[in-house]
Amino acid sequence: MLENYFPILIFVIVALIFGCVPLIIGRLVGPHRPDPEKLSPYECGFEAFEDARMKFDARYYLVAIIFIIFDLEIAFLFPWASIYQEIVNTEAIRLFGFIEMLIFIAILLVGYIYAWAKGALDWE
Q1: Interval 18-33: pLDDT, tens
Q2: Does the global pTM surpass 0.70?
């Protein structure tokens, strides 16, 4: 019974070797010269020790919205694409599946146009 798990054990060991050995070699061989600049935290391009109530540009939030829009798009399009052949072959849901995805893409398009109109895609 345990011999069935042997390939999994080998896989885990090889994964650990490929993951840990380069980190250990890099730590041993690479230069290690920390200074205050390297050790300071970096957040969003702003100094970490300024006032916490500073104003952010609205485009920062619009970029985050765009990321969420396209991230959700991919999260919903992949499962739909994986069963697309089944949708096409089933007469009862063929039109429903197509219209459902058109509505979904139309909602995403509205969000994309909104972000474009607000200038979130314009870089300085």
Answers
A1: 999 999 999 999 988 8
A2: no
